Amino acid sequence: MPISHSVYCLAFSSCLLMLVYFKKPDCRGLRLIAEAWDCGGLYQVGMFPHWGIWSEWNGKYRDTIRQFIKGTDGFSGAFAECLCGSPNLYQESGRKPWHSINFICAHDGFTLADLVTYNDKHNLANGEDNNDGENHNNSWNCGQECQ
Length: 147
What we know:
This protein is mainly alpha-helical. 31% of the residues lie in helices and 6% in strands.
C-alpha cells in the first residue's frame, strides 16, 4: 500500500535515524542540499526538515525571478524577498539566507538559452510528442521565437 504524502512528510520530519545520524561528530560542517519535492508532486520548499545542515533548491526563487524578468505584473515584492534570501520561506524555522539555493535554470533540461529563446517548450526531437517536461516555464523569447 503506498504511503500518502502527509504520512511520508510526518515520518521524514520526525525520523529518529536521521536525527541521530546527523548529530554525530563526523557530520559537523556537513552541508547537504535537498530537492524539497518528489515525483508524486509533493512540493515542500521552505518546509523540508533541515536539522541545521540541509539547504534547499528554491524553486519559488526560480519562478519569481523568471516572472519578474519577463515583466509580469505584481512580482516586484516577491522579487525583493528573493533578493533578501526568501525570509518568507526560511526565517520562521530559524534558517538563514544561505539555506536557500537560488537558481534560475538547473539540471532539468531547460537551459538559460531556452529561457530567452522560446515562449513554449520545443521537445519534439526526442520522440515524446512534446509531452515531457514542464509546460509552465515562465520563459520569454523577447518577441522572436528562435530555433
